[in-house]
Write a structure and sequence with these properties.
Peptide Methionine Sulfoxide Reductase, Chain A, 6-stranded mixed β-sheet, single chain, alpha+beta, two-stranded antiparallel ribbon
């Protein structure tokens, strides 16, 4: 109802102030959010990073890319489900665009490390981008090409670019893990350094 009244006010105001010979253009603000799914090692780390970024509306930890239906955390950790630990990110493209999302993703994990991030090893920790539409696929491939030719990383990027098929939300205790467990050893020794790197390189993009 409020949105309806605002739009009508804009229309009436526009006609009152409309000058002859000029075309009246009404542009409604977009509230369309975009979603992309990213895997950069342990989802606790990736979730913590993107929850601090302006324009990000929600971050959900989960599993994608495998063949086991409704996998549990224990099953995924075994490395036998084919799934990767991922986060599904919903963001406002009018505040932060996909290119910026990908910049943060690539610069806050090691995309040259095959099936591991630090001490976390296995295919469940692989670097992967699950795109939701063809535009995201092209953007991801172009970002990898850009990073390759810029020499940003000494070693080849091994990040996979795959279409999203199914996303399974992880157990509730994994959601907002860093925010809820800041004093846990993993948060102090693994996530905190990543957060420092985020603040150093992307301070203007943080909430």
């Amino acid at each position: 109802m409020i949105k309806y009244l605002i739009i009508n006010f804009i229309i009436i105001y526009g006609f009152i102030n409309h000058q002859p010979g000029k075309k009246l253009i009404l542009k409604e603000m977009s509230t369309q959010y975009e979603t992309i799914t990213l895997g950069g090692g342990c989802f606790w780390c990736t979730e913590a990073i993107f929850e601090k970024v302006k324009g990000v509306q929600s971050v959900i930890s989960g599993y994608s890319g495998g063949f086991t239906k409704n996998p549990s955390y224990r099953e995924v950790c075994s490395g036998n489900t084919g799934h990767a630990e991922v986060v599904q990110i919903q963001f406002d493209p009018e505040v932060i665009d996909l290119n910026e999302i990908l910049d943060i993703f690539f610069k806050t994990h090691d995309p040259t490390s095959l099936d591991r991030q630090g001490a976390d090893t296995g295919t469940q920790y692989r670097s992967v981008i699950f795109y939701h539409n063809p535009v995201q696929k092209v953007a991801a491939e172009e970002k990898i090409e850009e990073l390759y030719f810029s020499g940003t990383f000494k070693n080849p990027i091994v990040t996979r670019v795959e279409t999203l098929t199914v996303f399974y939300k992880a157990e509730d205790y994994h959601q907002d893990y860093f925010a809820n467990n800041p004093d846990a050893a993993y948060c102090i020794y693994v996530i905190d350094p990543k957060m420092d790197k985020l603040r150093k390189n992307f301070s203007l993009m943080l909430k």
